[in-house]
Amino acid sequence: MSGICGIVNLDGAPVDRNLLQEMTMFMAFRGPDAQDVWVDGAVGFGHTMLRTTFESEHERQPFSLDGKVWITADARIDGQDELKNKIGARDPDRIGEVTDVELILRAYQAWGEDCPKHLIGDFAFAIWDGPRQRLFCARDHFGVKLFFYARVGQSLIFSNTLDCVHKHPAVSTTLNDLVIADFLLFETSQDPAATAFADIQRLPPAQSLTWSAKGLNVKRYWTLPKEGEVRYRPAGDYVEHFRELLEIAVADRLRTQNLAVQMSGGLDSTAIAVTAKNLLDREPAPYELHAHTIVYDRLIPDEERRFAGMAAQMLGIPIHYCVADDYRLYEQFEQSGARFPEPSHDPDGAASLDALRAQSDRCRVSLSGWDGDALLNESPKPYFRTLLKNGEIGRLLAGMASYAISERRLLPLGWRARLAPARPSSDQAAPGYPVWLNATLEERLGLRARWEQVTSATPASHPVRPYAYRIFAQVAQWSNFFDCYDPGVTRLPLECRHPLLDLRLLDYCLTLPPLPWCVKKKILRDAMRGLLPEPVLRRPKTPLAGWPGSKMLRADGAQWIDSFVPAPGLDTYVDRKKIPKTWGGDYPLEAWTNLRPLSLDFWLRNLQSP
């Protein structure tokens, strides 16, 4: 994950090369292999290189094909053969072995501002089009890569590292009070384009930005597809096509001989691990593939060590355990290396950061299994309801019979009631509105009305895949969803890649008949049959048995949480005296909510420290 930054002055003022150099060198932690800048009068780009693919060994940025159109990018472009063929049909030059950044630039030459529609992969990039005097930027479909910008007068300053934008003296550190309030209420901003700083914006996922004398224009180039259903007559074709797409998704994210897998004992990440190993085994070059697993041996019931170890043994790969029993709440929050660019509520997140640190000690690329649950696990009830509504009684009865057989139990006589949409219980308590918000802030920003509007809103849904569409819609809305993996937050030179977010695989899985293929991940279990241990294949979805932080809250030595002295400025947002005691409590959800002011306090304290 390389670092990118730039300055564009539309008033013609020359870019301060020393300032741009300072901004670039600030990001050396995320690009230790090379740092370079390009300046042409009123425009300048900076780049720090982290070489994570074979092609990047010969890559230099900022980059240009003709000296007129320049690019700086943090990108991995997938489906390269298909993209090269599409570009080759429009470009008289032959497309041979090229880097990711050159592919983006050639795509821009071919399609202009429509080029993101033709790209798949993870990317954040900026292109200065000299002949058109236009800056064009884009961020990938799910926001795996980050992109921040500040518009100050006639200048636009950008970077994929929020703290880097602050290096420009024209960008203030004034906080965005509404975003801070959203953090305290919801843990994430309800505006996907906002950040915790008034001057700095975030480019949301699947959107592009154009900056020129005509002004600033941000537009969406992609939305989640909602139509279509794939149909194969032989059932095996569904599984074969899925296995083929999974291999393509993983292969495009390898492109290295040394990598880690964030492997729990669940099905998703172990499937990524075995697919990666099988692909690497087909190549003659030596490789290193390590599994990394967070485990609890005492704090809570946890079987990740058993199942992950079983999978690693069958695959013949080394596995490294991060034992999380002895971590304390807010451990490492006061260390300079864990200063979050924006408020973050992750009081028990030290183990996750240490697990990433262990991966970065061995490699530069890590694969995750996110998010197989959303992609491949759906209740059949919405599908049954849709068939009933459409009058497809034959398919409905066949589907219900198939479900009954696969679950090894008869359908209850009251099956019609089971098909009815779930209704919330009348005695089910709604999440509580915080009592500790600053009254002046609450009134000025209308926070109670905002809370009621957000918590009562009905999310956009889908007739047969409501869970999948709700999760992926949240990713788009919470445009900081993947920040926790980014070097701008972790300060680690490690690129995390997510094969199950591959657009080709996602498009296919969202068009599968939910029954039987997306019930309890049947298609993934069938695809992995014989490749993973049977206990892993049969293992049901098993979330952690409780929040580990609730155990930490009862630990001796955690009493300080109820007596912390607030940092200067916290009283703008929180009435410290109204925060209930949390140590030793028995209500994890309430405790989690009431710890948000403390998370904000740590962030404000670090923000104010030199």
Offer a quick outline of the entry:
Helix content is 35%, strand content 16%.
Structural account:
The protein is 35% helix and 16% strand. It starts with a strand and ends with a helix. Helix 2 (80-88) packs parallel to helix 3 (100-111), helix 6 (235-252) packs antiparallel against helix 18 (503-509) and helix 7 (267-281) runs parallel beside helix 8 (304-315). It contains 24 helices and 17 strands. The radius of gyration is 25 Å and the shape is globular. The protein has a six-stranded antiparallel sheet. Strands 4-5-6-7-11-12 form a six-stranded antiparallel sheet. It has a five-stranded parallel sheet with strand order 15-14-13-16-17. The protein has 610 residues and is α+β, with helices and mostly antiparallel strands.
